Amino acid sequence: MLSKLRAQTKFWIWVVGGAFVLTIVFAWGMDYSGGNTNPVLGKINGHKIMIQQYQAALQESYQAQRQQLGIQELDDAFVEFVQEQTWQQMVDQILVNQELRKMGMSVTADEIIFVLRNNPPAVMRQIPEFQTDGIFDYQKYDAAMVHPDFLNFWITMEQQLAAWLPQEKLGHLVMSTALVTTAEAEESYRYRNERVAAQFVRIDPDSRPDSTLTVSPDEVRAYYDEHSDEFIEPAKVDMNYVLLYKNPSPRDMAEMEGEMAYVQTSLQQGSDFGTLARMYSKDTSAGDGGNLGWVSPGDMVSSFDSAAFLLAEGGVSEPVLSEFGWHIIKCDSIRDAGTDSEQRALRHILFKEEASPTTLDSITALLDDIREIAAVEDFTTAAQRFNLTVMSTGPVAQGGFVPGIGFEAKALNFGFANQIGDVSEVFEHLSAYYVLQVRDKYDEGISEFAAVSDQIQQDLLYEKGLAALESYGRDLVSRLQVAPEQFASIVEAEGLSADETGTFTRNDYVGGIGRDPQFIAIAFNAPIGEVTDLIQSGDSWFIAKVTEHTEVTTIGLETLIQSEKELLLNQRRQSAYSTWVRGLRLQARIVDNRSLYFY
What we know:
By secondary structure, this protein is of the alpha+beta class.
């Protein structure tokens, strides 16, 4: 075990270090200088966040998300989410550390050693080499602690704890304000475990369509005149654009195929797989010789999985195509062969069908040529010189979806900031480059009546239909409340369906209903056997009859109540901490310059 852990020490330092979220290096007052090469991205109460810090944190966040999701690339929407999440985490971390310095919180070397020996953090307990049959094994952990080969590992862990433990102390101090009484725990337990069941009928436009409803032209015009504020159109911009995808050229494909053939030949001649992986693989595992660790059937995409589990121990596959590219796979070892728990230690070399830097340069150069010609001639004429098609976004409001491009703030920022006829620089998208020309601009204003009259008519018909359904529902409630025992027969005689929810708690998804808080609240307060009043949910109405109500007693359930108390206390502690951090934000002077450098 020790030899294996020693070989992976560098990896686990990274994993454990990354797990102490509150010990991110940038938060401990790290600063940079260097003028325009590393500008200030923001300030938190005067503390600078440099652009290099943010970019480094982003790369770690991207890598963590790719590993967690098991994908090679993140889509644009998720990239934006990670960017915002990373920024907010940096801000919160700096604010917390500023409070730590104000309060003078620190830890002693003895406290750090005590934690390492007696209460190792959960992330260290999860390291497989410190476990036996999936359970933390202190003997293995203790053996590694006293082994001289792991001196650097433990030095790193001590440094992490020196940064983390003061924040742990502060967290406990803040969260100690959260309290839960036994009575509150009992009420919470009842609330979460009490159950009801009901019969119900849904009344909606689909169940009772009405073709007799009409809306006159005068009604449409009157609505338009009285609700003109509803028809204000935001300012919009219409743009032409030429977009070129980052597709590999025939030369790129030939070079990839040549590299792949060379690697195959080298492997056949006995070259080291790990060395070739470091030189040629396009995967993040390249630096580790293509190592993927122990893999179970189904862990990888199907084509990779099928090829990998046909290899003998020490075997190397022919190139295998997957959605990520071409793989040459090696099986280093097999354990539990032929059983349901079979695993294989795999490595791979990934070859991607991707554009080379030279090809990307040629794409951007072509778009630059279009820009230069468009400065003299028409944008469309410039594109046609290169047999390229000019497409139009159509009118798009700020923050909207740009057809053909996506949610690209930089494209819209250009359009709104420039004049008709202006041509943009070359913009880079995740999978393409593009250049824009402002085609037309539209000021904010009230839509013409002719443009919205059809929609008004449809909306008024819809509203009349809902009103008719509500009136019908109230009449049906009256009849059902007189004869609740005939609930199903009365409903079915109307051509509607009497359905059953099954039993549910206040926190459950209710069959046929969903998580509708009004329906659930009424059901838990209605007497068994009585028909409820009409319950509205969106464009539907429900009528229900509770058929079962299981009360919960807390007598003799001390253990369960204590467990509920701990659950509720943890929730309140987390809420207290989040509220405290939000308070720091409200009082902080936060300068955010990301819009100057990122779109």
